[in-house]
Write a structure and sequence with these properties.
This protein is α+β, with helices and mostly antiparallel strands and about 500 residues long. The protein is about 50% helix and about 15% strand. The protein is built from 15 helices and 14 strands. A four-stranded antiparallel sheet has the order 2-3-4-5. A four-stranded antiparallel sheet has the order 11-12-13-14. The longest helix is centred in the N-terminal third of the chain and has 35 residues, at about 65-100. It is globular and about 85 Å long. The protein starts with about 35 loop residues before the first strand and ends in a 15-residue tail after the last helix. This is Signal peptide peptidase-domain-containing protein. It is a multi-pass membrane protein. It comes from Microdochium trichocladiopsis. GO terms for molecular function: aspartic endopeptidase activity, intramembrane cleaving.
Length: about 500
């Protein structure tokens, strides 16, 4: 299970607070502190993993009693499992809330109903019409034609869908605001109870649940930044996994001796099979990268080239001459947060993907994501087949890494988008404002024009107004171009949040 909400956040910078009312702010959006993997990690990951694995193996043999290590690691994993399981449960509750209290749903006759918790009513729009009319017969926060309900249900709807602000403050030390929803608190409470039960009963079911939670958070918290880095990291661990399983006793011994949630256990009638969490997380971060690339392409294809006039002043024989040249300005579409649309998309069906701006934003093509998932599933089936045929532990990454990586790169090759995959990065360099570019005869962008001028804060506001004015026809394109040049010169990623390559 992949957190769709996490897939829109840049993995290269720590998240900071955002001000309400700021441009681009979305109530449902979350920022995550994500570790961006670099090419050096392709070398460090296998080395560090090998050191830890061999260290645990030697420690188990030296102590001759793995229970001691299990208790030590259990104390550590008890804290980590509480945070991971809390996150998984909270996001699961968020998804369920979207089904119970949606803001839009589609009736059998094709009519769309928009639920407004503030006005405590539902507004309908007929197919092909954007006009919304209050439906007096629908006085419920639920989807479907139901009897009238009292205000208590509307209050519960607001309770589960609105954000809460928790303030942590110690005078002179720190003052932090944490924005959460009620489901986040429920998730932590349930996770706390599940963690206590797990460490008192050693339940295999709860162990697997904690393992899923670790995998879920691991995919959220790591990203390879580029496809080349991701491919290098995966193939580095690909060779590590082969060596440790086939040529050493380290991997099998540690996996069978330690009773900690670092693996998933599937109990059969006679014996059990295990799948290491690394076999989920490592391919999973590449699958997440593919999904974010799909999202980037959806916005990249919506860019528009607006003609602007460039003025150049030259002095010849003491006289000032002004020449004009027509160039193009890349205007990016407005970013709309697509997070948390599971329930709404199901209740409107695929026939109404544009019922709301958020639903339309979440309905982008996910070609590379599906290719990566299919590659993973086929490789996992092949892994299980090899396990049954040879009756010997198999290094899952031996099959999973080629299955995921090759499926994505082959998709890019077939679609003619290998260049886009090669240059795609999540380091923030693709995140910029509208800019002036040069285009060829076919209308393809060949070069970005950048300036080295600087501006004050006051000039920045004037420039922003000038660019917005050229889009509405209120400001001449020449003045807008001058504003774009100044903006592009000192453009830096937003200091209030991590730079997002998918954001327009």
């Amino acid at each position: 299970m992949i957190d769709w909400r996490s897939c829109w956040i840049s993995p290269t910078a720590p998240a900071k607070s955002k001000k309400h009312g700021a441009k681009g702010y979305h109530d449902d959006e979350e920022d995550y502190i994500v570790e961006g993997l670099k090419p050096l990690d392709a070398i460090l990951f296998p080395i560090l993993a090998g050191v830890v694995l061999i260290g645990l193996y030697k420690l188990i043999n030296w102590l001759e009693d793995p229970d001691i290590i299990n208790k030590i690691l259990g104390a550590y994993f008890s804290v980590m499992s509480l945070a991971s399981l809390g996150k998984l449960l909270a996001d699961t509750l968020h998804m369920a809330t979207g089904f119970i209290f949606p803001n839009v749903w589609r009736a059998k006759d094709g009519t769309l109903y928009y639920i407004d918790a503030e006005k405590k009513g539902q507004f309908r729009s007929a197919p092909g019409s954007e006009e919304r009319v209050l439906d007096e017969t629908q006085n419920t926060p639920f989807a479907g034609h139901r009897p009238r309900v009292n205000d208590l249900y509307w209050e519960r709807c607001k309770l589960f869908t609105e954000h809460w602000t928790i303030r942590f403050s110690i005078h002179g030390l720190f003052n932090e605001n944490l924005r959460i929803k009620l489901n986040d608190m429920f998730g932590v409470v349930v996770a706390f109870g599940a963690t206590i039960i797990y460490y008192t009963t050693d339940s295999v079911l709860l162990s697997n649940a904690v393992g899923y939670a670790f995998s879920y958070v691991g995919i959220i918290m790591m990203s390879p930044i580029t496809f080349t880095t991701g491919s290098a990291v995966l193939f580095g661990l690909f060779f590590y996994d082969i060596y440790m399983v086939f040529y050493t006793p380290y991997m099998v011994t540690v996996a069978t001796k330690l009773d900690v949630p670092i693996k998933l256990v599937f109990q059969g009638p006679k014996n059990a099979s295990m799948l290491g969490l690394g076999d989920i997380v490592i391919p999973g971060i590449f699958i997440g990268l593919s999904l974010r690339f799909d999202h980037y392409l959806s916005y990249h294809r919506q860019r528009k080239l607006v003609p602007v006039e460039l003025e150049t002043e030259t002095k010849a024989s003491g006289e000032l001459a002004v020449s004009t040249e027509t160039q193009r300005m890349v205007v990016k579409p407005e970013y709309i947060n697509p997070q948390g649309q599971w329930g709404r998309s199901m209740l409107t069906s695929i026939l109404s993907p544009g019922a709301t701006p958020s639903l339309k934003a979440s309905a982008f093509l996910k070609t590379y994501f599906y290719a990566a998932v299919v590659g993973y599933l086929l490789a996992m089936v092949f892994t299980l087949a090899m396990l049954l045929i040879f009756n010997h532990a198999q290094p899952a990454l031996l099959y999973l890494v080629p299955g995921v990586v090759f499926s994505v790169w082959l998709t890019g090759l077939v679609r003619g988008e290998v260049h886009e995959m090669w240059v795609y990065t999540e380091d923030g360099s693709l995140d910029g404002s509208d800019m002036i570019v040069e285009v060829d005869e076919d209308g393809n962008v060949t070069e970005e024009i950048k300036k080295d001028e600087h501006k004050t804060d006051g000039e920045s506001k004037d420039d922003a107004k000038a660019i917005e004015g050229t889009k509405t026809g209120e400001v001449s394109e020449t003045k807008a171009k001058e504003a774009v040049d100044r903006l592009q010169a000192s453009e830096a990623p937003d200091a209030g949040k991590p730079p997002n390559p998918n954001r327009a």
